[in-house]
Amino acid sequence: MSEIKTHYRNCNICEAMCGLEINYQDQQIISIKGDQLDPFSQGYNCPKALALEDFYTDKDRLKTPIKRTESGWQAISWDDAFTEIVENFKHIQQQHGKNALAVYLGNPNAHSLGNALFLKPFMKSLGTINRFSSASADQLPHHVAANFMFGAGMLIPVSDIDRTDFMLIIGGNPVVSNGSMMTAPNVIGRLKAIQKRGGKVVVVDPRKTRTANIADQHVFIRPEKDAFLLLALIHCVFAHNKVNLRHLSDKVDGLDEIRKLVNAYSPEIVAPLVGIDAKVIRTLSTDMLAADSAVCYSRMGASTQTFGGICLWLTNVLNIITGNFDRAGGAMFPQPAFDLLRNHKPGHKTSFGQYHSRVRKLPFFNGEFPVATLAEEIQTPGEGQIKSLITVAGNPVLSAPSGHKLANAFSELDYMVSIDIYLNETTKYADIILPGTTGVENSHFDIFFNSFSVRNTVKYSPPLFEKQTDQLSDWQILKEISARMLNLPADDPMQHVTPELILDMELKKGPYGQQGMSLQKLIDNPHGIDIGPLLPCLSERIKTTNGNIDLFPTVYQDDLPRLQAVMNQTKRDNQFPFDLISRRLVKSHNTWTQNSERLIKGKNPCTLEVNSLDAINLGIEQGQLVTVTSAVGEIKIEATITDDIQQGVVTMPQGWGHNQQGTNMSIAATQPGVSINDLTDAARVDMLTGNAAFNGTPVAIKVA
Ligand SMILES: Nc1nc2c(c(=O)[nH]1)N[C@H]1C(S)=C(S)[C@@H](COP(=O)(O)OP(=O)(O)OC[C@H]3O[C@@H](n4cnc5c(=O)[nH]c(N)nc54)[C@H](O)[C@@H]3O)O[C@H]1N2
Ligand SMILES: Nc1nc2c(c(=O)[nH]1)N[C@H]1C(S)=C(S)[C@@H](COP(=O)(O)OP(=O)(O)OC[C@H]3O[C@@H](n4cnc5c(=O)[nH]c(N)nc54)[C@H](O)[C@@H]3O)O[C@H]1N2
Ligand code: SF4
Ligand SMILES: [Mo]
């Protein structure tokens, strides 16, 4: 055996970018802990990081391509797999048109340097407009707001958590999720630091979450009513004459229109709807205005709902008019070393609504259609019908709304391919599964999360372990399919491009290139480089045609009558009297980390939280099995009775349901849980952006 060595890298599981110190000997991991010298995470890591070892050693993980045959799955060579796939794709596209082939991209793509870089040319080589991804089951409203207000979908304001004096968290549970659209390793430490410097943290959530538990104040809100709360908070700013644009006073268009709009939404008017006392709303506003700096941070609770678009727009409006935009302690733009907006010209024409989905007419944006439309696009006959699909690092059968219906749609496809490391609930419908390398076998650089980070830092990690000779990385798989789709000769320059080549070029051409930023510099600094706190940079970063923020884009004006209609609605459907919302668990990440024994062990975490008064009314006892029914499905799940969930609301974890025949995640199957997305309804979307509306799914519950 050789000596024990140390390797430094960023964890690639969630958005927090924690630096890790990994001790290893030969091909074996000895220990994983937080890297004290990482300038950003400073030694922090969560329990999931240790599972990087489990993913690496997992016996269920696929390492070679497999093909579905009449006698079961069989290993085939890479060359045979590529030949068959490309033949089928080409044949289907010749028969039914280019768009008959669709692509679904899942969350791990955003955490992989190679995938992030090679998916673009991959899509181009397929020539289809039918791309779908988990973004429309997640953060699409953030991008749409950025697109219309600041001129670029990737120009997302980030909460300056390290310097703010007041943080209003709407529909986020960063103590568990470690932050999202706000990369901040050790969120819990950063939130506590706000309190230590005399500031305040307030959480608005239908559930008393772990974040709410450490906050100074928790306010229960009715699901999907956040837009009204935000309108009332903005109303208060105008009513008290407290609009203060600071250095942006000549940089904001539409202020008067906002003033007129919010006139009708006083705290007293919205109070019964949102379920928050008018006095509490007024105090929230007063506290926010009194703080030296403040920021409103809205996340999944605000974005995956029927008014996600409006919520994320109003969140930006609130930060801007209270003088907390592009300023320390407010919402700010990062300046990443790999700048995704390097070639984005101001006034660039938006792709929003460039096309509409064939069946439901939901908008295309940022190169894709909403995932909520995928099943109907496969199952509705006619010109443009999807006949074939490739999924890349995604598990929509468990993650997309009405996932069980999507499973039926997948079984009707002419041909399906998955690039994935498991035979799971989605990939079991594929004809061929191509497994790439993962985690510690890959090099790592966070292209996306540096763009949403609360501090400007930069770090590159080489692979810890060499891949086996017969393994390919995801990016090599993508590149090979592209090359074969385009019949590229072996000496084509494309064939020689690597993620590292592109990364080095981007770093050199990026904002710190003149100061010597390069891949070599990052290799020489394995703990990462601190560039510093976020700086005001709106005037350099903004991409609107006139260089101003558009406070009231027409798309939102046009969407407001839909919100107003809810205000006038008095009755709700008695058939489904409860609102179902999702929750995240500390020891699982979406649908795919449940095959790690150390993460899954212990008692079943996939339970339905029911308020104690509701439980009494329905005769439900602690631990009892209940039947939950929605308009589209039914599940059975164990009840946990608690007052942490609001009356009339129930919650269960997302990402579970590994109980299906024909999958190979054997450890996950020992604690399968049930899938929340057998209940969520693909018909429920935010009509403006097309984002899935998971929150507030109407359900009925009864003792099973
Ligand atoms: N009801 C409800 N539904 C939700 C949510 C919710 O809160 N509530 N959350 C939504 C959100 S925020 C998201 S991001 C989506 C996630 O939706 P998805 O991205 O569809 O789901 P994941 O579980 O991330 O799927 C990851 C897939 O990639 C595979 N994989 C893991 N690592 C690698 C790798 O390195 N390479 C390759 N090729 N494959 C890999 C895994 O085996 C798995 O099949 O779910 C959404 N769904
Ligand atoms: N441990 C762990 N960490 C993760 C993940 C994971 O699966 N596990 N997933 C990662 C991913 S892909 C993402 S996108 C992020 C998500 O990060 P977060 O958004 O922080 O995570 P969620 O737990 O989905 O938080 C949503 C909160 O909104 C609340 N909520 C539900 N409906 C409403 C509503 O209508 N209004 C309001 N105000 N609140 C509502 C829920 O109770 C919940 O507390 O987490 C990431 N980090
Ligand atoms: S918080 Fe996220 S990035 Fe940090 S160790 Fe945990 S899973 Fe990895
Ligand atoms: Mo996500």
TrEMBL record:
Reported cofactor(s): Mo-bis(molybdopterin guanine dinucleotide)
One Pfam family linked to the record: Molybdop_Fe4S4
- Keywords tagged on the record: Iron, Iron-sulfur, Metal-binding, Molybdenum, Oxidoreductase
The record ties this protein, via PROSITE patterns, to:
4FE4S_MOW_BIS_MGD, MOLYBDOPTERIN_PROK_3
Q: Where is the 4Fe-4S Mo/W bis-MGD-type domain?
A: 4-60
At the top level, the lineage of the source is: Bacteria
The family database entries (InterPro entries) matched by this protein are listed as: Asp_de-COase-like_dom_sf, MoPterin_dinucl-bd_dom, Mopterin_OxRdtase, Mopterin_OxRdtase_4Fe-4S_dom, Mopterin_OxRdtase_prok_CS, Prok_Mopterin_Oxidored
Q: Which family does it belong to?
A: Belongs to the prokaryotic molybdopterin-containing oxidoreductase family.
Q: What protein name does the entry list? A: Dehydrogenase
Q: Which organism is it from?
A: Shewanella ulleungensis
